[in-house]
Amino acid sequence: MKKIPLSFAALFIAAVNCLAQLPVPTDYLSKDFHKGRRDALRQMLPANSVMAIFAFPTRNFSNDVDYKYHANPDLYYFSGYTEPSSVLLIFKDIQKDSANQPYNELFFVQKKNPQREQWTGKRLGIEDVKAMGFSHVYNAEDFERHVPNLSKFNKIIFEFPKEISDKITQTDDTYDLVKIFRKKSSLPEDFDGEVMTDIMSISQFPMLLNSIPRLTQYYKNLADESEQYKNNTFIKKVINLKDSTEAKALLKEMDDSKWDPALYSLYTNKLRQIKTPEELKLMRKSITISALAHNEAMKAVRPGMSELELQGVQEFIHKKLGAEYVGYPSIVGAGANGCVLHYIENNATNLGNKMVLMDVGAEYHGYSADVTRTFPANGKFTTEQKQIYDIVFEAQEAVFKICREGTTFQEIEKTARDVITNGLVRLGILKDEKQNRLYYPHGCSHFLGLDVHDKGLYHKLIENMIITVEPGIYIPENSDCDKKWWGIAVRIEDDVLIKKDGFENLSVQAPRKSEEVEKMAAQKSFIDGLKIDLVK
What is the spatial distance between Cα 508 and Cα 217, in angstroms, rounded to a whole number? Predict the structure, then answer.
């Protein structure tokens, strides 16, 4: 990719603008959806408060090439806007501008720049963002001039994007917006947004006050490992807590704070954990695409294939069916590679007769699936592989039986772990129930949506939540059990919509039973017979 001086770009702009627009998808979330989410948030905000939602910064990939930009899911959720260098302010109460015009939202967006747009694509700019349902829209470079004195509000609710670099100097960049926001909010210099989100969230979990020594030790460990935590005033106070009376006084002090990133976390968790009908349509599409792609991978797999080749088959189906991205780096682990929970190298060149664990999910219009299937490269489970696989299947079936509104995440975790532990003890792989985390080290369920590990409160299931159900067993090489079990890794993961009196498995189109997996693997794939030789 060559760098061409921007002065040359202007020569092409008029011609490019005259090109006919090609068809694009039409099933994006509506502006009414985004307005509804802002209205729902405003109902939660306390009196005389403001909440700030920042765009993620861009990130450099190599030299003068950036990573493909991925919007802050919160900003997208509340606005539909997907560009960098922006910040949305949402006010609880009506404000007045300099012309005495009312507003309860201010949106500062990336400035249009025809020369840059020639290279990196169209920017919406002020007028197009107004058409998205906003009355008061300004260029980001005018943030300091148009934003009011935020320190006058009783509550200033915000979350700074992680890894904001102080080396970024463009006047319309996220770093500059954060710097101006801190000034306008009279935010103390030592107020670390990331640390304070963590520590102030204690107020959302009063049960932590029942174990003060455990709480203080947790933050002492963090302080020992991080200067960021060690130098924080509130962290020091938590570490020195003597009893629940002091803890309650500290919680009161934090609750009275004008600056409150913990409320940002609470409000976005509460809203995003429940999916609206519009969101469900996109989630169904993302998950169905993923399930169909897993089917194609099962059909295509052969002992001589590489992990990377199998990944390509699955992701081709994603693109074929309209998914823009994967929701997370694809995991394709053959044999012992599958025992690495987030294995993403995918560089084994020959699958042999191993089982392949594929944890691959499509992202469609921002919404991510998270589906895992495990299947034998030669199409047939060995006796040992099937025994382990069937225990995981049994655990998943047991969890499905309790998936309904009112079930707790703790009940889900216990149900899955009990089945797996009992199964491994029965096979002699575990000596007793005390080893229950040895070959099943992760949890069974998490929220799913705009993030693959989506926002939500891990208490009780509520109707229209979408969660994963993903028990697994992983037995690395050289484990303390019979050698015949070494290198076997199984995870079966499905995406589940919670209902009042039950659930719906949204990824049901990809087979789960071992017999059905073998039947799918016996079918022909579109790549059968495809041969492409590398020219030497």
Answer: 44
Q: Which residues contact 248 (CB under 8 A, 6 or more apart)?
A: 209
Q: How far is it, in rounded angstroms, from Cα 76 to Cα 492?
A: 31
As a whole number of angstroms, the distance between CA 47 and CA 43 comes to 10
User: Which domains occur in the chain, in start order?
Assistant: 6-184 (3.40.350.10), 193-257 (no CATH), 273-521 (3.90.230.10)
Contact between 181 and 52 (Cβ < 8 Å): yes
Per-residue pLDDT, 385: 98
List, in sequence order, the alpha helices (H) in 88-204: 114-120, 125-130, 143-146, 174-184, 193-200
Closest by CA position to 363, among listed 44, 162, 73: 73
Q: Identify any residues that bridge with 54 across adjacent strands, giving them in sequence order.
A: 87
Place of tokens 């655990």: 395
Residue 528 half-sphere exposure toward CB, CA atoms < 13 A? 10
Question: Which residues, given as ranges, of the chain have pLDDT below 70?
Answer: 1-20, 163-172, 201-210
> Rounded to an integer, what distance in angstroms lies between the CA atom of residue 103 and that of residue 105?
6
C-alpha separations of 488 from 199, 301, 333, 387, 412 in Å: 40, 18, 11, 10, 24
Tokens encoding 493:
């993961």
Q: What CA–CA distance (Å, rounded) separates 247 from 208?
A: 10
Question: pLDDT tens digits for 74-124?
Answer: 999 999 999 999 999 999 999 998 899 999 999 999 999 999 999 989 999
Residue % of the chain over a pLDDT of 90: 73
Contacts of 232 (CB under 8 A, 6+ apart): 190, 192, 195, 196, 199
What is the Cα–Cα distance from 385 to 254, expressed in whole angstroms? Answer: 53
Distance CA 266, CA 429 (A): 42
Q: What's the rounded Cα separation, in Å, for the pair 125 and 498?
A: 39
What letter represents residue 165's amino acid? S
| Residues 137 and 126 sit within 8 Å (Cβ to Cβ) | yes
* 172, HSE (Cβ side, Cα atoms, 13 Å): 16
Helix (H) or strand (E) holding 10: helix 6-18
